[in-house]
Here is the input.
Amino acid sequence: MSEAEHRVPIDTGPQPAAEGIAARALRLRGATYLAGLNPDQRCAVETLDGPVLVLAGAGTGKTRVLTTRIAHILNLGRARPAEILAVTFTNKAAREMKDRVGQMIGQVVEGMPWLDTFHAIGVKILRRHAELVGLRSDFTILDTDDQIRLIKQLLEFEKLDEQRWPARVFAALLEGWKNRGLAPDQVPAIEAVSFANGKGKALYQAYQQRLKTLNAADFGDLLLECIRLFRQHPDILRQYQERFKFILVDEYQDTNTAQYLWLKLLAQPRSSPDAPGAATAGDEGAERGRSPDVGPRLHTNICCVGDDDQSIYGWRGADVDNILRFEHDFPGARIIRLETNYRSTGHIVAAAAHLIAHNRGRLGKTLRAEGGPGEKVQVTACWDSEDEARAIGEEIEAMQRAARENGADHPLDEIAILVRASFQMREFEDRFIQIGLPFRVIGGPRFYERAEIRDALAYLRVIAQPADDLAFERILNVPKRGLGDAALQMLNEVARRKRIPLLEAARLLGASGEMKPKPRAALRALVDCFDRWRGLGAKIPHAKLAEIVLDESGYTEMWQRDRSADAAGRLENLKELIRSMEEFENLTGFLEHIALVTDADGGEGGEAVNIMTLHAAKGLEFDTVFLPGWEDGLFPHQRSLDEEGHAGLEEERRLAHVGLTRARKRARIYFATNRRIHGLWTSTIPSRFLDELPPDNVEVTEARTGGFGMAAYGASRFDEMTAFGSNYGTPGWRRAQGRRGAGADEASAAEARVEAAERGRRPASRLVSRPGQAGDAGRGGHPLRARRAPPLIEGALIAKSTGTVSQFAVGERVFHQKFGNGNVIAVDGNKLTVAFDKAGEKRVVDRFLERV
Here is the structure.
């Protein structure tokens, strides 16, 4: 297709005059789709002319307004289906919009080729004009693996060490630049020098040239090349401006700079076909999306729907300023606020609205609930993360019991646990498997199924069992050691021929001359490491061994150098794995537990509690929502505060607002007063967001379970027997019952219950079920593998991290590398509470202390 052909104007035919007979007749045509809209929603649907920003709070019917507006435009004949540009972020959202419009006005929606995601529409435009950006219309779209492989080729050509300058790091830089709409010549100098000693910009240029040679584009190019096309060819831009009579944008608060620039170019006012060209690439106007100055038009029919209070994706390039500056970008824009929440009860809506009002960077609106007040938002303090998981598990079971007693049901599918960081999931997964409560992890694999956790466990499995060939094969070249497929093939040949494990085959090949020097040296070094680690295992705690293994193998460093968005989360998961190991006596016991956990059926395919991050929960809703981990440093997350300052704090507050508004009937907030971080017990500070909640809408409750016998944090652990019979009939347990003031009859009954439980108890390794609760075989549940209950001595729980009693005593003077000198004021197994001279009271494991 020649360039001249591109400039042929699109003949869309005459349209009904605004006040003509046809338009009046169309307005009188039946519009049943408008029935049921509240006044604000109807105003947003019927305000068709000029720029409109619909600020739609959580649960206010945003999608209904957007789809009804499309139906209204088509019903009035203001535009044909092919003259409406409607963009959203996901294929699922695009399909839902088409389905809803189709239900309202019939199959005319099938003629809407421009109702799709940003990138899908970008592909359509690029394929029509590919040669103008140096491509052919049949260009290939690279996936992530192809992109990484191409970058590795460039690094090799430039003789750059891929170990020092990883391809994935550069891929993350490229994604960031393209999300901001930056071509190679627009990359700021300070960012260009951040990779390969200043070669970042040159590599970007070489990468783009290589894409053109391959007739390929990556995901970021689908918008970046469109922007370049529109800027360099104003006539093409005019064609699309004339084609699209109406532009509608969903989730506008989540747009990044490239999406903003793309939309701004299409939606800019225009009057003359001879208007000047685009702004110079790279100037400040281009950076913020000021498109070509082509003169004013009467109006731009663009409608953006979004909520500045739900902008939570800044970490992946979304810019909340895009929605905040809408009136500046489109002078005379009308802002319509949807403030009636149809999802949540009054107390939940009021709490969320009061919390988000503390943000300064917002356009402002006040949510109000359509329904009754409902239950207050509950806030509960727990002793630690394990106690938190236990309390939430018991709360879920109590809800189900109460519902059954009332002849109703509380489906597990309508319960969600929303965490700030993925490492928090482990405690809940372990606890729910232990009590037989079905669960599913949404938005990612379960904790022990994550790639980084499986890699770390593979190292530990080889140490514990050198004949574990599957584990050895997994980590042979992770991180990269130059031991590729050829090396693995040689290892397998030797192992089969001599009938020995792969590790022993590696020992033989490392000492022989069959392999090339470099892989042979790498193999010999790996075998030596495993020998050394196995020797250390008999001398140091297994959790410390795991930390050494991950450091010395280079695995931790591999993720530290990775600059992808999920690298920090992977490192947190590895730290959580090491922390979890302290609960077991040795490495073998820990690996056995993992095997049982990963083998247990978590209820996939049936009803199950939903566990996910707050980010993954956006757009979802549940009857009951649990929000654990509301502690400063975790939520708001310290990394957001450190990197983004006040802007980061406001995004964290928006995330809290999103979490609360996922709940329809019940919202439960939990925080722990102690949390183990990097192997140390640390007294945590409750989240600052808690004091920003309105007291009239919040109820402070006591945890159903207490930690370490701390009565201030919940009921005694002896208050009730569990169905597992995890309390022993020891004299200490009976004395504990007696101290509670139980009478002789009650004590006798308690002893009888204990004896019955002891008679019915099966070995810990046997499959057991929990009758009468979630997971009960009679209710379609699944059996579980139960861990051995911790031993009791005189009614006190022995510290489970090592199984030993500390050598320190109350009153001793101790020294800590981080906190300095202090006095021991309490001893609980191997965990000590120390009053440090400068740092205050901290709870630490004794192996990190020295006597003064």
The chain has 32 helices and 28 strands. Confidence is low (pLDDT under 50) at residues 1-12, 271-298, 600-604, 706-803.
